[in-house]
Design goal:
Layout (H helix, E strand, L loop, with lengths): L1 H6 L3 H23 L1 H4 L5 H13 L5 H10 L1
Helix pairs in contact: 2-5
Length: about 70
């Protein structure tokens, strides 16, 4: 979807995917630093998949919400 967003003339989808990748990068860095906590959280990978689905899905637009609440 990121490649399709780059090729489309509409800049709003570019913003959505750029925001998603920024949140993804911050999460990945945090996850690597706090890797010792991963084994203590039950169903961690299921929670992670659900979280990333919520981030990228256009209906919820979670990446923009996370960016506005945490990063900005």
């Amino acid at each position: 979807m990121s490649f399709k967003a780059i090729d489309s003339p509409d800049p709003t989808d570019d913003t959505q995917w750029l925001t998603y990748w920024c949140i993804f990068a911050l999460f990945s860095i945090t996850e690597n630093v706090m890797s010792f906590l991963v084994e203590w959280i039950p169903f961690y990978y299921m929670i992670k998949v659900t979280f990333f689905t919520w981030l990228y899905h256009p209906k919820f637009n979670g990446a923009s919400l996370m960016y506005k609440q945490i990063v900005q």
